[in-house]
Design brief:
CATH superfamily: Decaprenyl diphosphate synthase-like
CATH topology: Undecaprenyl pyrophosphate synthetase
Shape: globular
CATH architecture: 3-Layer(aba) Sandwich
Helix content: 25-40%
Largest sheet: 6 strands, parallel
Strand order of the largest sheet: 3-4-2-1-5-6
Radius of gyration: 20 Å
Strand content: 5-15%
Number of strands: 6
Distance between the termini: 45 Å
């Protein structure tokens, strides 16, 4: 069955779709600078792009969409820019919460939200509760998030359990670590998309993306249209995911011991 809601030159079957797509929404500031506008203008236009991508993700049957909205490192940006980003998050949730509910979207947060203002913390928690009964797309927003900090928090939690005698060091497995990450209960991302042409993951989902497929788009986030999104999904569907194993196409050649 092809993707609903958008006509593609090469329709993708639903079984070829990733369950979980994670996005590093990069390039807002540079896009605005190219247009002779302040960086904050880029963030405002980038926020508008979120609406379309969330809508398309739900229509195309993606189960989880994780958006890297604000990183640990972003706290080091100019105060005015940080303030604008926080206000945009507040504005988006306030404006879109009812629409997200109509579209059956759930809402989750990952990151150290204790660093956010009390008002924004309340809004995030209220939105999460308001949408908790929905059964469609999970919109998972990373705010004040860093992969190293997340792993550190998980390690500390496990260390406290060892100190209390609840578990032994040898009880720690990769599954147990996953259960103590911010993303506990969610599938690992199948596809990680980064916009703006940068080819790095910037401390994003370090543990979870161990076997993710990556797509680096040269397009800046404010111009990452649903056509660009569809192109990334099409590239993903053409890849063979082996998870460290041998390709099915190579099984018949494993016994060939001919000299090199």
């Amino acid at each position: 069955m092809p993707l609903p809601g958008f006509s593609l030159p090469y329709p993708l079957p639903r079984e070829a779709m990733p369950r979980h797509v994670a996005m590093i929404m990069d390039g807002n500031g540079r896009w605005a600078k190219q247009k002779g506008r302040p960086r904050v203008y880029g963030h405002k236009c980038g926020a508008e792009r979120v609406r379309e991508i969330v809508e398309q993700s739900g229509q195309w049957g993606i189960e989880v969409l994780t958006l890297y909205a604000f990183s640990d490192e972003n706290w080091g940006r100019p105060t005015e820019e940080v303030s604008v980003i926080m206000k945009l998050i507040e504005h988006y949730l306030g404006k879109e919460r009812e629409e997200l509910n109509r579209k059956n979207v759930r809402f989750q947060i990952i990151g150290d939200i204790a660093r956010l203002s009390p008002a924004l913390q309340r809004l995030l928690e209220e939105t999460k509760r308001f949408l908790a009964g929905n059964t469609g797309l999970i919109l998972n927003v990373a705010i004040s998030y860093g992969g190293r900090a997340e792993i550190t928090r998980a390690t500390q939690a496990l260390a406290h359990k060892i100190a209390r005698g609840e578990i032994k060091p040898e009880d720690i497995t990769s599954d147990l670590i996953s259960q103590h990450l911010d993303t506990a209960g969610l599938p690992d991302p199948d596809l990680v998309i980064r916009t703006s042409g940068e080819m790095r993951i910037s401390n994003f989902l370090l543990w979870q993306s161990a076997y993710s497929e990556f797509h680096f788009s040269s397009v800046m986030w404010p111009e990452f249209t649903r056509e660009e999104f569809a192109s990334a999904l099409r590239h993903y569907s053409s890849r063979e995911r082996r998870f460290g194993l041998v390709s099915n196409h190579d099984n018949g050649r494993l016994q060939d011991m001919s000299p090199c």
